[in-house]
Amino acid sequence: MQAIRLLAILAAAASEVLAEGATRRLIISIPDRKIALLEDGRVVKVYPIAVGKQSTPSPNGSFHIATQVVKPTWYQPGKVVGPGPANPLGTRWMGLGYKGYGIHGTNRPRSIGKAASHGCIRMRNQDVEELFALVEVGDAVDLVTEVSDDMAQAFAGSEPDKTAGASAGGGQ
User: Fold this and answer.
1) What is the per-residue pLDDT for 166?
2) pTM for this structure?
3) Where do the domains of the chain lie, and which CATH numbers do they carry?
């Protein structure tokens, strides 16, 4: 059922991408805990993610990649963690244009697939490095929490291209 819901979300997003003439977009399904990269309305790659826990949920809505940072520094009141294995942001940060929220790596890879963050979208470091190289500042990012039954049926049976993608050189 989760796969159908994710595919429905992707179908809706793909039709919006074509209507708007955009070429690249990220769709984040909070309930499915997955992020999909779409290019020209086609699903290129789907990655597992961690989302916000119940007490600190991930926001839903339309955002964009506002910043991209290699080897980010993590700041919390009274604490600063520079780049390295102890950094909760992992190796990459993509800010969403919504203060304090972003897509980033993690030093807790076992949290992937769970509702475990403070609202950010966590990815395995190797996955976030790959995605980071495929997107640009300004690309649209939609975080969604629900899909209709009609959308679920419309995208049933579609599969993303698992061979696409590039490797980049090289939380919370």
Assistant:
1) 34
2) 0.76
3) 2-154 (2.40.440.10)
pLDDT of residue 6: 54
CA 95 to chain centre: 11
Q: Give the mean pLDDT of 138-160.
A: 58
Task: List the beta bridge partners of residue 144.
Answer: 29
- pLDDT for 108 beyond 50: yes
CA terminus-to-terminus distance, the chain: 28
pLDDT score for 137 = 97
Determine the Cα–Cα distance for residues 4 and 96; give it in Å rounded to an integer.
26
**DSSP conformation letters of 61-125:** EEEE--EEEES--EEETTEEE-SSTT-TTTTEEEE-SSTT-EEE--S-GGGTTSEEESSSEE--H
Active site residues per annotation: 104, 120
Residue 51, CA distances (Å) to 29, 137, 162 in order? 9, 21, 22
Where does 21-156 have alpha helices with state H?
125-134, 149-154
